[in-house]
Amino acid sequence: MNVAKLLEKRRVQWSELERLCDAMEMRGRTEKSGLKHHRGAEGIARFSTLYRAACADLALADAYQLPPGTVTYLHRLVARSHNQLYRANKFEPQSWSTILFEVAPQQIFADPCARIATIIFFGLFSLSMFLGMNEDMFPGFADRMVGSEMLSQLEESYSQPLNADSEHYVAAAGWYIQHNTGIGLRCFAYGILLIPCLLTLAFNAVSLGTMFGYMARPDVVGGDNFFEFVTAHGPFELTAIALAAAAGLRLGIGVFYTAGLTRRDSIRANAMKAVPIMAASVMLFILAAITEGFISPSPLPYVVKAIWSVLSSGLISFYFVVLGFPRDVLKVTPGPETGDQPNAA
User: Tell me: the pLDDT tens digits for 141-157?
Assistant: First the structure.
């Protein structure tokens, strides 16, 4: 069946979902939750079904570039429905686990801002590491990018083997949380203006990559100690920086590209998409800080830190790729009136 004709047939369900949103918003002005008190469990189940179908319809409308009026209408309908469905008065472990392990990774996986930020950050990081490591091919690159004084301090800091005492761990963990969060907040805050966010992201990528490359040179003092320190927490920290920038970019997109919505509605809709990205970034920053404070500076054997790095990289990949991979890319949830599915052709 032609996708445009299929979506046209589903306008009956869109109208029903819109009426439910109107009723719940009106009730929500006088009660704590419009959804909770609307027709009980049966009403919640029906609303959830209509909401999932509208999300699938919106994905198809975007993919097949249907008329802007249809896409705009579905954007607003999905945003209104999302506000009602995920408005809660208390902590509910089941709903939060669904958001954390189903909704968030799939939304991040599908978000082009996350892909753009990740490609820019890790691309520049890898390139700068290669350029900084090969002094013969690119003489003076590290000095120009980071500065000779910073490189000297880096060598001096890691000239001695790691052997921090237990008191250092707690203090270091707190400092790293503050430092890492500051990097993430800057990338996120600048995202509203797009270009400053990309520049901040690129600056951190080039600086970190250059330092990694410089310390990888065989003639540099403290290189082994440096990599023994950064191996354990590197995957968490580097991924967190990229995600923080991605969340900021998502907000900035809402300001400059409204997709037919009012600017206020566009910012609100993109803010909802940015929340899971920033939440994932915060989670990774915390894990990086804990690792950086308690494991990285410890005298544990390097093999233990390397195993931790591999495990953390595997967990990151599993969360964002395996859990995030879309289950039904072009599947439209059938309503009670029809069991039609769109034809991929």
Answer: 999 999 999 999 889 88
